[in-house]
Amino acid sequence: MNIDGVNFGPDGLVVAVVQQHDTRDVLMVAYMNAEALRRTLAEGLVTYWSRSRNEFWRKGDTSGNSQRLVSITADCDGDALLVVVDQNGPACHTGSASCFTPQGQVTS
Question: What is the biggest distance separating any 2 CA atoms in the chain, rounded to whole angstroms?
C-alpha cells in the first residue's frame, strides 16, 4: 500500500473498517493516523489511534486479542481503509467476536 494515496482528514485521521480475512465479517471500525498506518505496515500487527485516549494502541497488547495484518486497501478517494486481518480472539471490547452484533441492530 502506498501511504501517499491516503487522504487523512483535517484531524490527521482516516477511518479503518476492519474485516476478518476468511469469513469477511466486519469486526470493528477504528481510526489510524499516518504513524499508526506506518507501524501497522512495518510490524504486521495492527495499530490504531485512540481518539478518546489520544494515543496509539496496538490491538491485543492488553487483551491478547491481536490482529495480524493480511492487507490494507484504500477506497476510491482514499478517505477510508479496508483493513483485512487474521483476528486472534474477540475483536470487541465487550468480548463479542465483532462490534457489530444483533444487540446493536437499529430498527425503525
Answer: 44
CB 64 within 8 A of CB 90: no
Quick: pLDDT tens for 10-43.
999 999 999 999 999 999 999 999 999 999 999 9
Is residue 108 assigned to a domain? no
Per-residue pLDDT tens digits for 53-99: 999 999 999 899 999 999 999 999 999 999 999 999 999 988 899 99
Which cell is 106 given? 437499529
The CATH number assigned to the domain holding 38 equals: 3.10.20.810
Termini Cα distance of the chain: 40
Q: Are the CB atoms for 20 and 28 separated by under 8 Å?
A: no
Domain annotation covers residue 64: yes
Q: Give the number of domains in the chain.
A: 1
Integer CA distances (angstroms), 69 to 10, 29, 104, 105, in order: 26, 15, 26, 28
Domain extent at residue 82: 12-102
